[in-house]
Amino acid sequence: MAAFKSIKSLVPLLDRVLVQRAKAETKTATGIFLPESSVKELNEAKVLAVGPGGLDRDGKRTPMSVQTGDRVLIPQYGGSPIKVGEDEFSLFRDHELLAKIKE
Amino acid sequence: MAAFKSIKSLVPLLDRVLVQRAKAETKTATGIFLPESSVKELNEAKVLAVGPGGLDRDGKRTPMSVQTGDRVLIPQYGGSPIKVGEDEFSLFRDHELLAKIKE
Amino acid sequence: MAAFKSIKSLVPLLDRVLVQRAKAETKTATGIFLPESSVKELNEAKVLAVGPGGLDRDGKRTPMSVQTGDRVLIPQYGGSPIKVGEDEFSLFRDHELLAKIKE
Amino acid sequence: MAAFKSIKSLVPLLDRVLVQRAKAETKTATGIFLPESSVKELNEAKVLAVGPGGLDRDGKRTPMSVQTGDRVLIPQYGGSPIKVGEDEFSLFRDHELLAKIKE
Amino acid sequence: MAAFKSIKSLVPLLDRVLVQRAKAETKTATGIFLPESSVKELNEAKVLAVGPGGLDRDGKRTPMSVQTGDRVLIPQYGGSPIKVGEDEFSLFRDHELLAKIKE
Amino acid sequence: MAAFKSIKSLVPLLDRVLVQRAKAETKTATGIFLPESSVKELNEAKVLAVGPGGLDRDGKRTPMSVQTGDRVLIPQYGGSPIKVGEDEFSLFRDHELLAKIKE
Amino acid sequence: MAAFKSIKSLVPLLDRVLVQRAKAETKTATGIFLPESSVKELNEAKVLAVGPGGLDRDGKRTPMSVQTGDRVLIPQYGGSPIKVGEDEFSLFRDHELLAKIKE
Prior knowledge:
The structure is a homoheptamer. Chain A is an all-beta fold. The first copy, chain A, has one domain (7-23, 37-101): GroES chaperonin (10 Kd Chaperonin, Protein Cpn10, Chain O), CATH 2.30.33. Chain A contains no helices and seven strands. The first copy, chain A, has a six-stranded antiparallel beta sheet, with no helix packed on it. Chains A and B meet through strand 4 and strand 7 of A and strand 1 of B.
């Protein structure tokens, strides 16, 4: 649990990326509500904030692969979970993100 | 499960390669259908998209070994599975791919 | 247990950061006291002191990501615990800190 | 199992070496056939194809130790097995090969 | 057990630091003697000798973080124990020391 | 088992060293034959062939520590065993050899 | 067991150091013989020979911390044991030695 009020207060350090996992649809395309057991967790997430980049051995920042607003594919496991109120977020290292989603 | 509609929306990050495993033949060369238990999983895959390359310690991109459209030999285990609808795909790191198939 | 009298005597070495975990509220916003079992440990901490930075391979100090007074998000596990009297503190490596909290 | 028809279609990536293990004699020097249990697996193999070499940290290819046609001593364990029809092959990293055989 | 007579004979090698753990008080501030079970081991130590520093990859010595006479916070576990007569000492690597104590 | 006829056909790759373990005496200095159980395995070996040296990160060969004909002390465990007929040999990496024996 | 006759025949390779552990006193300072169970193993050793130094990434030798004749503190565990006749010796890597003993 965190004491701060808004996730917007978080500024990721080094090469960390703050994401929020996309919510699975709880009803079908035709509007029928799905029973909870058939709603699967998605590996898609939205980037909320990105760190300044890690430091290479010469003290320079390594560029980040994503930016705020990007939709990304995240790995099944890993990341540091953060809970603010009822909402859940995750922090990943930049190199752990798998792909950008462009559509 | 992923919420995006087409695998074409995926842009692999860093040195990742998006592949689709080749489907095993379900009938013999002479047209006889094989029972499902004798259809083995293939380690051959088609490259659908490649990342821009990883970053070396000087911040330069390392070249990728394969390109979109290549047929490749993938390792028996490993890779990150992705499911879009009924179709399954995988993301590998470039150095995990074993060989190109040229014929 | 430590024999020194004040946490202010501690000067972290290399890339270490001395933090004190934020205390969880023991009463609700409307002033009702919470039973102890419903008070969760927070992952938020205040930076009390920072080391001079680690040494890179050329003998130069790598810059620290945080400074004294910063509020930070710390990982669920890890860090070196320090107890002075009844108060508890932790030492983390700079790269273990997850994010700054700005509000 | 692989779907391609000939092992000659395989082009090893990076520092990989495609080899075929030498077949153990199934009859003695004087022509007597050996029972299968006394035929031991050999650690000798023939190099069928070599990759272009791995990439060093400056992006240059590291030279390969062997070339197509070489006879090599391979380690007892390891390598990626490949099966084409009834024939079995292996892919090793260049540095895993133990010795060349010259006679 | 060591055969040398004085701990002063020890000259730490490379980046090692010779320390002696601070003794816990066996009586309270008001002079009441504590039963042995309530005397906790301290993580505070005094630096008795420091090595010349480790060698970086260019053969240069990396500077030490502490010097003889410093009071330091040592980790709960680790270090190489040395016993001279009834006295116990420890050798730590410089980067294992957590903080200096200044008061 | 190896199919090649002579150990002299082996050319070690990279930093590998081909050695043959010294045979323990099966009789005492005064000529009395020892029962087999009291003949201990020796860690002394003779160097039969040396590789060209490993490649450092700039693509240069690192020099080998031993040469053909040297007597060396080998570690108790490790090395790749090779059997040619009834004779046993081993391949070690150069840095695994412990010492030269000069007498 | 080793077949060579004298420990003086051993020339350590790379950064290895040949040492002989100091023998514990089997009688007290006043001349009383100690029962064997009260004679503890010492971690003090004498340096008999030192290797030329390991190779850094530029192919240069890294300097050794000790020289022949030095008395050193060795770690409780580790090192490669060597037995010549009834005498036991050990080989350590230079960086494993803890301290020099000067008295």
